[in-house]
Amino acid sequence: MNRIGCHLSTSKGLHKTIEQCLEINADTFQFFPRNPRGSKSRLIPDREIEKFLKLRDTHDINEIVCHGAYTMNLCSDREDLRELAIKLINEDMKKIRDLEIDNYVLHPGSHKNQGIEKGLNLIVEGLNQIDVSNGQKICIETMSGKGSEVGFDLNQIAYIISNTSIPLYVCIDTCHLFSSGIKLVKFDDYLDEFDKLIGIEKIKVIHCNDSMMPFGANKDRHEKFGKGLIGKSDLFNIIFNERLEGRPIILETPNNLDGYKIEIEKIRRKFHELREN
């Protein structure tokens, strides 16, 4: 079965995330390496890193995902903001290297009325300046298409991957797919197209979120698992799709720890039901 977890805060220390995983029966998790709405990053003491690594290995909490800050925009219409994004991503690469984490999810950016073509080429230019020499896997997230957002169309993601000199991967987000107009009831058709344009092996992370907004709304509003307009059936069909076996499943639903525990137990229970049948 795929590893299942949720987004957790590291404000009380990285080792506390392992304790939270055990509390909610998760075997992976996602976190921000810095303020998601800014640029500040906490310096993590070596002693905290050592404790985190030891606890992670002891309890087999792996395939951990680091999510880049929302404010980083590789295709901004301002050169200084593009340069800042490159700087911060490279800092994050060093941080996850020290934490022995590979998966790094990144929103590709918003072109700010420069046009999709200009935006795509600026993203490529920026990513070509990122150091992933220690094996870090940058995963471009599929987006909902709000405003001038880039990455809501497979052709856009394929362009970025095929024109960038560093290896790139993909994080699919169920809410974003639904909001961008992908019919999840026909998810295998989407995977067929993905495999043709990019290759399914490039999918490394699954964000499992229901949607508050209707199909094709191009608005990013997450809902609790099975409580939104996607529904449990289609979400189960995605996360238990045999072609996506082995990818970590991350819940970014509007929940507290108790809510995440309920959702994780619901997913695990359904998996065992399907296996028994």
From TrEMBL:
Residues reported in the UniProt entry to bind Zn(2+) 3: H176, D220, H222
Key word NADP present: no
Keyword hit for Cytoplasm: no
First-tier enzyme category under EC: hydrolase
InterPro entries recorded: AP_endonuc_2 (IPR001719), AP_endonuc_F2_Zn_BS (IPR018246), Xyl_isomerase-like_sf (IPR036237), Xyl_isomerase-like_TIM-brl (IPR013022)
EC number: 3.1.21.2
Keyword terms of this UniProt record: DNA damage, DNA repair, Endonuclease, Hydrolase, Metal-binding, Nuclease, Zinc
Domain called Xylose isomerase-like TIM barrel: residue spans: 19-269
Cofactor field: Zn(2+)
SMART domains: AP2Ec
Catalytic activity from the UniProt record: Endonucleolytic cleavage to 5'-phosphooligonucleotide end-products
Binding locations of Zn(2+) 2: E141, D173, H207, E252
UniProt xrefs under Pfam families: AP_endonuc_2 (PF01261)
GO molecular function, one term: deoxyribonuclease IV (phage-T4-induced) activity
Cofactor note: Binds 3 Zn(2+) ions.
Residues binding Zn(2+) 1: H67, H107, E141
Annotated family: Belongs to the AP endonuclease 2 family.
Functional summary from the UniProt entry: Endonuclease IV plays a role in DNA repair. It cleaves phosphodiester bonds at apurinic or apyrimidinic (AP) sites, generating a 3'-hydroxyl group and a 5'-terminal sugar phosphate.
Protein name per the record: Probable endonuclease 4
Organism in which the protein naturally occurs: Finegoldia dalianensis
Name of the gene: nfo
